[in-house]
Amino acid sequence: MSTRTPVAMTPARLTLALLAAGAIGGAGATFITSRHAGAALPPAPAAAAATATATSTEAQAIGGAPDFSQITERHGPAVVNITVSGTRTASGDDEDDEQAAAAPHGGMGPNDPFQEFFRRFGIPAPGFGAPGPRAPQQFTRGQGSGFIVSADGVILTNAHVVHGAKEVTVKLTDRREFQARVLGEDARTDVAVLKIDAKDLPVAPLGSTRELRPGQWVAAIGAPFGFENSVTVGVVSAKGRSLPDDGYVPFIQTDVAVNPGNSGGPLFNARGEVVGINSQIYSRSGGYMGLSFAIPIELATKVKDQIVATGKASHARLGVAIQEVNQTLADSFKLDRPEGALVASVDPGGPADKAGLQVGDVIRKVDGQPIVASGDLPALIGQSRPGEKVTLEVWRHGKREELSAKLGDAAERPAQVAQADEGAGAAGQQPKLGLALRPLQPQERAGAGVGNGLVVENATGPSARAGVQPGDVLVAVNGTPVKSIEQVREVVSKSDKSVALLIQRGDSRIFVPVRIG
User: In a designed cystine with 262, which of 222, 254, 255, 511 is the match (CB 3.0 to 4.6 A)?
Assistant: First the structure.
């Protein structure tokens, strides 16, 4: 059967296309908004002795651009073509798929702050995403790429290339074909490890992203649209990119042309070392449009080592929901610059809760490594092992504090604990904010799972423009839990530029910055 290419999207839409054409369990397209995240990576692992001697070759400069022909000739044989077959759930016709992707969170307006929350954390919006009738299964085939990392047949590729596959075939450049075993796959990092029964295979030397700089030349080798052993060249555009639903990976962004079928293939630097695994593209059409993303090789190698040893990869979790710090939130929390990860909620009984982390804290550093964008935090935590201890530098009520946290296991679901304490207050207007507030009734507190808070009866002016809606629950102002209308009035009166309102809508919370100056 022919492979199914991604649905063509209208020019107004930006879509994230997984690159395995017709890849089982990953051929669809989802929306992303790219963010900068300068997450540092751990030191690169030592290269295997078999590959250490192959890393001295450098691309020769010709007319101002590097010539990757020697690298391709030397290391191209270590790149493999992967064909998978199996079954997947039929998703209906392309038009229906496109319409579903166009409104992933239902009817929320573009200024609704929860639109960003649901998109950033991959949470279905209330009232939407309910499962429908089970769709029929259909046979499908897909293609991707990979590269050999040990002479006895261990291969790295993307998890979405082989996810759900019943049969995986690996084809070498010498045209030999092998049936591969999937040793394991890690959906959080999109890394999978295959094994074929062969010896004395060519091996791709592994490098490091620590010295990789924006503007440096890189090359991809893979099988775009099934055209095997295709070489494309470009430069590093940025490092440490954080993408929605991929919080564990600080991606390398490049302008190397990669397309469906390139997934899982290697990204080489000018020294002929693999520095990443080509994984995703940012596109309006499902094809290459100048933005491609690769998984750093250090992270991929770490996952590979765990899979080879145990059959799976484990990741740590801190147990918080976070959001980006923009200038308005920075002003509200009196930060010197809009950096860090703002804690919107803390899992009761989780690692962060036990460490003393609070809603409204801004995490600035982890073990001394700066958290510039919010995406830096899950990337750093995800690279740690469950049980490890980390030191957090947080900004709380206008000053720095240090906390120590013992990380949990991301595979464990946090317990949900609801509280329903009594509270007091009086109905009132907050004209500076444009809010009409009233106290929560006991049954409302129990239903919302909050100890204190005020119900938004009406929102106008600054709050309405920021996205606050009637029925929302105001939980905290500038990180201070709300207990009464008078308290809110006092906090707002002392704020000259903006305030950060912690709003709960349904089961989700987010800080909404409101400019009042």
Answer: 222
The pLDDT value recorded for residue 14 is: 39
Q: Angle at CA 199, nearest 5°, toward 277 and 193?
A: 30
Helices (H), 231-316: 297-310
The answer to whether residue 263 is catalytic is yes
- What is d(CA 437, CA 503) in angstroms, rounded to the nearest whole number? 13
SS3 446: helix
- At 410, the pLDDT band (50, 70, 90 cuts) reads confident
Max CA pair span of the chain: 79
Strand partners, 154: 150, 195
Q: H-helix or E-strand containing 509?
A: strand 508-515
CB 188 within 8 A of CB 314: no
* Domain architecture of the chain: domains with CATH: 15-54+68-86+139-310 (2.40.10.120), 316-409 (2.30.42.10), 428-515 (2.30.42.10)
| Residue 172, token pair as written in the block | 């070498």
Looking at residue 43, its amino acid is P
Q: Is 160 a catalytic residue?
A: yes
Of 34, 263, 279, 292, which one is the catalytic site residue?
A: 263
Instruction: List strand residue ranges (DSSP E) for 347-472, in order.
Output: 362-366, 369-370, 389-396, 399-406, 408-409, 428-430, 435-439, 454-459
AA letter at 135: A
